[in-house]
Design a protein that fits this description.
Blueprint: H1 26-35, H2 42-62, H3 69-92, H4 101-123, H5 127-149, H6 162-182, H7 188-219
Length: 221
């Protein structure tokens, strides 16, 4: 699968797949092979990602009282991402795609994003910031899918695409654990929540500008 410089897949089969470097790793391929020996479906894996996100969100919500829950939140976030990787690999590389696969690929992602980012806001002590970040994250997906509805390849560029948001959350969990053990200040989670909100809004702008640029270029002078 080839990827264009602007972050879009250029193959027909992968035109609407998020470019993920880990997809080519031996670890991911071994897990995919193992899953293909079971009756599990890509849609079930997508739904499992919501469960892991919910566990991570609950842990993040209560971690201010029990700091070791930051590790649970980190694990939940990473397992959510692992499911997001494997559902596509089982569907495409494993040939187990279904007519409703596109729905299961998108809807659970929005739910998982919302759970984790809202929990981040409440964990930071500012609930509205989490809701604003979740809305901005959903808008990045809306812009991407809307570009696809116009006949364009879906644009997965950042600066705060899904993998970037989850990276920010994962680093925040580690730093917040250290912060809770070393100081009474609570700065890590608010900074992470603001980073996701501002970055997601910037992502909406960059993706929208790319859509406009491609449309203008296609229409000619």
């Amino acid at each position: 699968m080839s990827v264009a410089p602007d972050g879009q897949d250029t193959t027909i089969q992968g035109a609407d797949r998020r470019p993920i470097a880990a997809r080519d790793s031996g670890f991911a391929r071994r897990l995919t092979t193992l899953l293909l020996k079971t009756p599990v479906t890509p849609n079930q894996i997508s739904l499992l990602s919501v469960l892991f996100a919910a566990i991570g969100a609950a842990a993040l919500f209560w971690a201010s009282r029990w700091p070791l829950l930051y590790l649970v939140a980190l694990i939940g976030t990473q397992l959510r991402l692992l499911c997001n990787l494997l559902d596509g690999m089982v569907a495409v590389e494993g040939g187990r795609g279904s007519p409703v696969g596109a729905l299961y690929n998108e809807f659970p992602d929005r739910v998982a994003d919302t759970l984790l980012i809202v929990a981040l806001g409440y964990g930071a002590g500012t609930g509205w910031l989490g809701w604003a970040g979740a809305l901005a994250a959903a808008l990045t997906a809306y812009v991407r899918v809307f570009g696809g509805s116009l006949g364009q390849s879906q644009d997965f560029r950042g600066p705060m695409a899904k993998q970037h948001r989850m990276a920010v959350m994962s680093v925040a969990c580690v730093l917040a654990l250290g912060e809770s053990l070393l100081t009474t200040q609570r700065l890590v989670l608010p900074i992470a929540a603001w980073t996701i909100l501002i970055g997601a809004l910037l992502t909406c702008v960059t993706r929208t500008r790319a859509i406009v640029s491609r449309i203008s270029g296609a229409s000619g002078p």
